Amino acid sequence: MKVGLFIPCYVDQFYPGAAIATLQLLEKLGVTVSYPKNQTCCGQPMANSGFEHLTGGCNELFIKNFAEFDYIVAPSGSCVLHIKEHLHSHEHEAGAAGISSKIYELSSFLTDVLKVESLPSKFPFKVGVHQSCHGQRGLHLSQMSELVAAPFSKPHSLLKMVKGIEIVPLSRIDECCGFGGTFCVAEEAVSAKMGKDRVEDHLSHGAEFITGVDMSCLMHMEGILNRRGSKVKVLHLAEILNAD
Amino acid sequence: MHTETKDHAELADVFNKNEARVDWHDETLWWIRQKRDKAVNHLPEWELLRETASQIKDNVLSNLAGYLVQFEENAQKNGIIVHWAADADEHNNIVLGLLHSKGITKMVKSKSMLTEECHLNDYLENNGIEVIDSDLGERIVQLAKEPPSHIVLPCIHKKKEEIGDLFHLHLGTPAGNADPQFLTETARQHLRETFLTRRAALTGVNFAVAETGEFVVCTNEGNADMGAHLAEIHIASMGIEKIIPKRKNLGVFLRLLTRSATGQPITTYSSHFSKPREGTEIHIIIVDNGRSKQLGREDFRNSLKCIRCGACMNTCPVYRRSGGHSYHSAISGPIGAILAPNLDMEKYADLPFASTLCGSCSNVCPVKIDIHQQLYKWRQVIVQNGYAPAGKKAAMKLMSLTLSSPTAYHIGGKAGRFVMKYAPFAVNNKLNLWYKQRDMPEPPKESFGEWYAKNRKA
C-alpha cells in the first residue's frame, strides 16, 4: 500500500507539529508514507471566495503530485472535502476522479481503511473535541446534531483508545468556530464572536486542551485563547493519538 | 431600510458593538433550535418525511406550469377569482385596483413574506390605503417602522422592554410595563377593533392544492382567519412555488413546517380556504417576481422548495450573531442569501459570503435544500459576473499564482514566517483584521517540508 501524505499549506507553514505527528502515527501503524515535496495547496481558499476558476494550477499540481498513490491521507477534513467535491481537470479528469475516491482525512483512514482498534498512546488530560464542520457535515466523520439518526464519531472512537484521556462534554456539540477561510477577515466581527463563544464552551467545561481534525479551526480558537491569555492549548487529533 | 451603502459585514459589525445583546439574540434563537431538535426527535420517520417532502417539491418544480393551471381551474370552479402577476409592481397594482373598485381605504393583513418582498405596505400607504399587520410580531415591527428580521419571528430582535416602550408610545400602555401577557392582551384588544371594522383582508398562502383549488394558511394567532372571515373581500397572495399537487400531501408538509419552525407539532390554525361565503369574494394573486428565472437556474432551482419555516435562520451561527437586518433583504438568513441574488445580483452580492459554509442550514431544512452548496455556487456566479471587489480579485490572482508554483510557494512561505518572527509589527497591526481580536500563530522555526527533507529520505 503506497500512501501519499498531503499536508495542507497552512499546516506545512505554521503547524509542522501536526504534520510530523500524522507522519509518525501512520509509520507507527506500519504504513509506508511518502510526502511529495512539490505539493502546495488544495485550492480551497480561492474556490470558497468565488474564484474556483483560478484553481486550475493547484488542481493540475495536485494531480501530478498524488495520482500515483493507492491512498492519499491528510490531517484535514476541510481540504479533503474540497478535493473530493471540486478537484477537476480538463486534461486529466480520470486522474482527478481517481484522487477524489482515494483521498482520506486522517481519522477516517485510521477507522475505515486501517481499521485501528487500539493505540499505544497516552494523554492524561481533559480534552474538548471540536467538530470541524467540513469533516463532520461534509465527510460525515461524526453524526450531526440536526439529523434524527444514530450517533457515532470517528475522532471520538480513536480518542477513546488513548490512555488517561478525559473528554469533556460541550453545550453545543457541533457549532462552527467561525473560521470559514476568508470569512475570518471578511466578516471579522461575526467570525471572532463565533470563535470566542466556541472557546468559552470548552473552557467552561474544564478543557485543558482543545483538539479536532482541522488545524484551521484550531488556529482560529488558538488565536482567541492566546488573546485572552488562556493557558489552554490546541492540538491536532494526530498529536494526541501520537502522544506517549 | 436604508442600507444601500452597507453590506452584511458592516451591518454585522454594528450589531456586534453590543456583545451582551448578541449573546441574548444567539441564545434566544438557539433555544428555538433546541425546541426544534426535541420535536423532530419524537418522530423516528423524520428523515423520511424530509425526503418525501423534497421529492414532492421536485415533482412540483418539474411540472409547475401544469399544476398552476390545474389549480387555477379548480379555484375558479370554487368561485375564487384568480389573478396573475409577473412581478411585484403588477401584484401591488392588482391589490390597489381591487381595493379601489370596492371603495376601500383600510385593510388588515396577516403575515405574508411575499408582500414584504413586494414592499406592498409602502406602496399602499403611498396610495392612501392604511394597512394594519395583524400578526403580533409583524404589528410590533410595523409600529417600530422596521422590516421583519426573521420570516417566522418578525420581532425576534426586540427585547420585551423595547416592545413595552413601543406600546406605550402607540397604544397607550403604562410607561415601563413590559409584561408579555399584558402587552399581548393590549395588542389583542387593539387588533380586535381592526378585525371588526376592516372590509378587506389580505393573507399569505402556505400551500395551494392543485387538485382541489383550495389554499391553506397557517398561523398560531388565528389572525388570518379573523381578518378573512370578517371582511367582504379576502385577497390571498402566493408565489408560484406554493403549489402542492394533492390535499394528502399536506400530511407531509404540515408535520414538517412547525416542528422545523418552532418545535410545535402543528400550527394552532391550519385553515383551508376553498370558496367564498355568500356575498363575499376571494381573490388569489399568483406571483412570479423572479421565481421562474430561479427555476431556470439549474444550480439554484431547488431553493424554490422553501416552505418558509425559518429553521435555517435559527440554526445559523452567523445569523444568530448578526441579526436578520444585516441581510438587508426581505428574507434574511441562509435561505435569503440564496434567494436574494436571483432578484438583484449586484445589491445582494455580499450575502452568499455571509457564511462559513458550515452546512447546518442544509441539515435542518425540512425540504432538503442544499443551502450551503448553493451559497458556494452563488459565490462563483457573483465573481464570474464581475461583482467581486477589485482588491479581492488582485489578491486571489496573486494567491493562485503562488500556490500553483512550488518554488513561489516555498519562497513565499519562508519569507512570511521570517517576517512574522523578526518583524511581527508588520502583521500585528490594525490593518490585519485577524489581529483585531485574535493573536497570530507563532511562526515555527521550519516548515514541515523543511523538516521532512532533513529527517526522511526523499
UniProtKB/TrEMBL annotation, chain A:
Origin superkingdom: Bacteria
InterPro entries the UniProt entry points to: Cys_rich_dom (IPR004017)
Family matches, as Pfam families: CCG
Domain Cysteine-rich: 3-84, 127-221
The protein, known as: (Fe-S)-binding protein
Species for this entry: Mucilaginibacter rigui
TrEMBL record, chain B:
Lineage top rank: taxon: Bacteria
Protein name as it appears in the record: Lactate utilization protein
Pfam families: Fer4_8 (PF13183), LUD_dom (PF02589), LutB_C (PF11870)
Record-linked InterPro entries: 4Fe4S_Fe-S-bd, 4Fe4S_Fe_S_CS, FTHF_cligase-like_sf, Helical_ferredxn, LUD_dom, LutB/LldF, LutB_C, NagB/RpiA_transferase-like
Keyword Iron-sulfur tagged: yes
SUPFAM superfamilies named in the record: alpha-helical ferredoxin, NagB/RpiA/CoA transferase-like
Span of domain 4Fe-4S ferredoxin-type: 296-326
Transmembrane segments: none
The entry's keywords: 4Fe-4S, Electron transport, Iron, Iron-sulfur, Metal-binding, Repeat, Transport
